[in-house]
Amino acid sequence: MDKNHIKALIEQHLKDTDMFLVDIKFSPNRLGIFIDKPAGVLLDECSALGRFINSELEASGFLETHDVEVSSPGMDSPLMVPQQYLRRIGREMKVLEQDGREIKGTLIDASETGIEIKEVVSRKENKKKIVTEVMHTLSYDNIREAKLILNFKFIK
Q1: Averaged over 10-32, what is the pLDDT?
Q2: What is the rounded distance in angstroms from the CA atom of residue 156 to the CA atom of residue 148?
Q3: Topology, domain 3-71
């Protein structure tokens, strides 16, 4: 089965909605489809896309050897498309650049071409702690991986 054919089917189903395709993963007996939307994707929406894909692929025989799974990417998954970054403005994240440099900071802005992230850097100078904010503008091409930093703060 051709990945471009699957992508076209998904985009056909998601057309005129606020949902978007994040990724498609093939394994020997599984087709994984990951979708999202600004307010977060619902289980019913994943199920509806799964039923649609199954009905479209039934005649091809693909479903005899593959299971189709549709889900959201999950909070610990890397961000892959600009729409995911837009949804997470204001959140803490860790970005690994192509050259291996790591930046931890707050996502300030996102566009179709890249992101802006604010990093808080502290250093000691003459026994004083100096805290500065550094703004980084990164193109998506320069990002190897970007993940949210999950903070689980418990209220006592």
Answers
A1: 94
A2: 25
A3: GMP Synthetase; Chain A, domain 3 (3.30.300)
